[in-house]
Amino acid sequence: YQRRVRDAIHRGGGQIIPTARRVFYAAMLTAKPALMEPVYLLEIRCPVSTLGGLYTVLNRRRAEILSENQTMGTIYIIKAYLLVIESFGFTADLRSHTSGQAHVECVFDHWQILPGDPLEVGSQCHATVINIRKWKGLSEGIPLLDRYFDS
Predict the structure, then answer these.
(1) Which residues contact residue 138 at a Cβ distance below 8 angstroms, ignoring those fewer than 6 apart?
(2) Per-residue buried b or exposed e for 28-66, using 16+ beta carbons within 10 Å of the residue's own CB
(3) Are 68 and 83 in contact (CB under 8 A)?
(4) Confidence (pLDDT) at 9
(5) In the chain, what is the greatest distance between 2 CA atoms, to the nearest angstrom?
(6) Which of 54, 78, 129, 145 has the most other CB atoms within 10 Å of its CB?
(7) Nearest 5 degrees, angle CA 66-CA 44-CA 97?
(8) Do 40 and 88 touch, CB atoms closer than 8 A?
(9) From CA 120, how far away is CA 141, in angstroms rounded?
(10) What is the pLDDT, as a whole number, of residue 1?
């Protein structure tokens, strides 16, 4: 039994929080939501002889190469952006393709918007949302806006 109190002084969190939650959820669904993903800045040092293996790994992991500079001798310094989701196992993969001669330093650099609409079924962004909802134990479907209207 829940009694609706009309007097503002007697309203508590039990009445205000559920209403505010529904308002915020509905606002997020109508505001063209987007997902952000973190991006690392990589600085890789390797000899010239390992550049082929290095570029193989970077291309496979959708890295964006920013610069490559040759220092004294035959050492190259390559700077690139790499999505954090693509970085899992990156160091081991890089070492196996360069015979352990490449050394990498990963530093968080910025956030970037994941392309696509999280509400559009079939997009990569939507698939990411569904996977996150499964991982958190939520229902797989994104709730419809009608769920947050008062009846």
Answers:
(1) none
(2) ebeeeeebeeebbebbbebeeebeebbeebbeebebeee
(3) no
(4) 63
(5) 79
(6) 54
(7) 110
(8) no
(9) 12
(10) 42
